[in-house]
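COMPLEX REQUEST
Ligand: adenosine-5'-diphosphate
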Amino acid sequence: MPDHRVIQVAVPAPLEQTLDYLPASPGPLPEPGTRVRVPFGRRSVTGVVTGHATQSRIPDHCLRRVQQVLDDAPLLPAELLELGLWAADYYHCPPGEVLAGFLPAPLRKGQAPTRRPPEYWQLTDDGRATDTGRLRRRAPRQAAVLERIAESPDGLPVAALADLDGDWRAALRHLRGHGLVAPAAPAPTRVVEPPALNQAQQEAADAIIASLGTFTTHLLEGVTGSGKTEVYLAAVDAALARGEQVLVLVPEIGLTPQLIERFNARVPGRVAVLHSGLADGERQDAWLAAADGEAEAVIGTRSALFTPLARPGLIVVDEEHDASLKQQEGFRYHARDLAAVRARNLGIPLVLGSATPSLESLCNALAERYRLLSLPRRAGAAQPPRLELLDIRGQPLDAGVSRPVQERMRAHLDAGGQVLLFLNRRGYAPVLLCHDCGWIAGCPRCDARLTWHQADRRLRCHHCGHERPVDRRCQECGSTDLRDVGQGTEKLEQSLGERFPDTGVIRIDRDSTRRKGAMDELLDQARQGEGRILLGTQMLAKGHDLPDISMVAILDCDHGLFGADFRAPERMAQLITQVAGRAGRRERPGEVLIQTHHPEHPLLDTLLREGYGRFARSLLTQRREAALPPYSHLALIRAEAVDQDPPRAFLEQVRRAGTDMASGDVLLMGPVPAPMERRAGRYRAQLLVQATHRAPLHRLLRALVPRAAELPGARRVRWSVDVDPQDML
Ligand code: ADP
Ligand code: ZN
Ligand code: ZN
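STATUS: Structure written out below.
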């Protein structure tokens, strides 16, 4: 009897569909979520089983066979498989690529899902009762390991065994197998008692806790310093007490060591951290510990959303407005939006927290799709910072710093405070100009200028990474009178060093924190008061709690007022509010000065007089009137090529095909060149698809994307689809 059992497999390739295979052998079929090795073209690849069928559209004799089943039990739970297939459809991304992206690299390559021994070990009761003398005669290596571990009753780091002779790992495995040693929690520094929550915190925590076990999305809108983290922790405690696991997404792990510390202090030894800085093995260990249910709190950046959990109970997305939650290439998903899908599928609550919620989330909260929880005041004794605009038209500036700002800095430093200067531009100067002929050093591969980095005497493009030694002479006229225009953080640092010679200056930007651990060190120095002037880019805006900062100066935010992107005002307001929120987080009241050339600009005026919450609500009204997201839905089709014409020609073909297919409620606009048309040696163009409702947009894309792939122009470009684009670049 012919074998009519077909296995559907998502293979890591740009295919819209899963592929059908015949089973490797009779017997039960590998369950969905199991990895299999399958032939694909002339290669053999690792795919994930997504389902079974009794029949394939392809005749039996053309079907190929699964070569090997790699897992005894599904590696991806049904719930994650469902999320992946949903996301592949929603973002128009190949399902095999989406699911491959869910797996840590070694598992993606087909390796066995084994965990390395835990990091810390201690003796069990049996281990303590063991006669090491007898053990030494029978198994000297095991005895050596046992004795070494016995020296550290609170847990011995595995690295402390590395100097033992021979295969100590095998010895450790034997000891564990005999129940003489067991993994220990990584020596907890201390368990910190939670502070008594204030009333607003308590109400928010109660609402979240009451929703455990059901799908509810909470938007926790809490001003900076209002104690959102304590609310998360209270909810986390409650979920753990129910025996559940929690997943916490944060914007960028390197920027939030404090949050991890706070989790570790409250639930020591039960936290797994997942981020891009981990080695493959470490990532896999954490991933499997979460899947096993051993790691109870999983903290990570956006892709940690796809971590399997044995007993999921709660998802938290901190700083839910942050742009880094959206992946900008390949599988272009938004982790906040997919978190909502996952929480709904699981029937568990989702908490979105921010001092400056995205307009999307705010809109959902106002429409009562989300439950709005607010923390209107700072926790403890801290007062809200006072914001003030400073008109710098015609004013003398020293490396971009006006005299009034310098005076206020002195006053705050004299009073023992710390000062933070925000300048969102790294390097020494953004422009290098020839004073004789006006030539400007530009990037040969982009429509962009090169930034001068003085410390290593190089010119760098911040868009494509091109760099070269700084020019001595003008490339046009040969003059040696080259001058820098504008300022970056390096120049500001130098100038502050001259003006405040007795005060330590700490610079935090991508250059000063490149080395692993550098960010932590600099923040520690800041916390210990070694540097009392802090300056930096938006890396400084995110969630840091530096108790002594009493003054913040925002040196240049004017470009946010005139950005081409419709999200520019929202972003500007979020950045100003977040940076300002670093001031006055304890007893010292905070003062925030915002330098501007446009002191009467209505956006700045509203933001300062009414605060982010009211500002954002009025932006929402404008978005509604302009039919922009969240009151309409967008997709951006991008194309790029080495030559200028093919991207536009291809998108023109796409537009024509799309217009024929589209019902009246979907608009195709463009193609137009990207705002920076040439980047990294390629010309870029884009086509915008807009619809009032999601359903017709997705109907169109579902038909258009496969059609676009077959258009004659498709072969001459690289192209992609971005659903709910965050950047219109
Ligand atoms: P947010 O994340 O909202 O900006 P944090 O959670 O970092 O705020 O809290 C700001 C500061 O206030 C932290 O130092 C925190 O320890 C403190 N804090 C939070 N809740 C309380 C409370 N109920 N009582 C006293 N201090 C608190
Ligand atoms: Zn010149
Ligand atoms: Zn460039």
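REMARKS: The mean pLDDT is 90. The chain has six domains: 6-108, 120-183, 199-375, 386-427+488-625, 431-485, 633-723.
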